[in-house]
Amino acid sequence: MTGRFIALEGGEGVGKSTQGRLLAEALRARGLEVVTTREPGGTAGAEAIRAMLLSTEGDGWGARAEALLFAAARADHVEKLIRPAVARGAWVVCDRFVDSSRAYQGGGSGLSDDEVMALHRIGSEGLLPDVTVLLTVAPEVSAARLALRDGDTADRIGGRGAAYHARVAAAFRGFAEAEPKRFAVVDAEGAPEEVHARIIAALIGVLP
Ligand code: TMP
Q: Which of 3, 10, 106, 131 could bridge across to 102 with cysteines, CB 3.0–4.6 Å?
């Protein structure tokens, strides 16, 4: 039996990594092999690209170069880790995937969705998650969580202004509305265990 590919998406400070851990534990408790991973990253090559993308040294990347680098990191990750894991029956829980490129490099930075998806077709043969869990919180909640997490050490993309992150959040909401079958939108406010229970409820049709 092939596995499943679940992506967690959302803006900064919505609790994706905590929820990824809790979801992986819940899936393992059901006897499944689970691979947890993240983007940009997940393989040695993609982690090297991550360091280039998020570093605050140098003069940064234009939107197009940035989109190409994310697509290149994703291509390595999909080919070497995600596709082989799903093919052998594992469940992959990935912290961010292509919808982050659509929301940040698209909605935030102004590339068209067609451009972002063209890069994804070339890089990763258009692979999409079986389910994309979109975690949403009010902007002031994510700002407060981020201040706790990052203090004044935000990375190059996380540190972009409130207007940028508002465009990102609006883009994510639009994708979920356009593709309700692939997306599960989950309110990420409240205690981590409460949010986890909402995610499990949203995945009920997918879980074994
Ligand atoms: P992280 O903070 O969730 O680890 O993600 C790193 C940053 O990279 C975050 O600000 C979102 C951004 N990002 C993009 O801009 N495009 C992408 O395709 C991905 C995967 C992440």
A: 106
Q: Give the strand order in the sheet containing 34-38.
A: 34-38, 91-95, 4-9, 131-136, 183-187
Fold assignment, 5-202: Rossmann fold (3.40.50)
pLDDT digits (tens, 9 = 90+) for 29-82: 999 999 999 999 999 999 999 999 999 898 999 999 999 999 999 999 999 999
Q: Where are the alpha helices (DSSP H) in 92-156?
A: 98-101, 113-124, 139-150
d(CA 188, CA 170): 16
Domain boundaries, the chain: 5-202
Q: Does the CB atom of residue 39 touch ligand 1 within 6 A?
A: yes
Q: Is residue 147 within 8 Å of residue 90, measured between CB atoms?
A: no
Place of tokens 């983007």: 39
**Cβ of 157 less than 6 Å from ligand 1:** yes
Q: How far apart are alpha carbons 107 and 109 in whole angstroms? A: 6
Give the pTM: 0.96
Strands, E assignment, 33-84: 34-38
- Best CA proximity match to 124, nearest among 97, 90, 156: 97
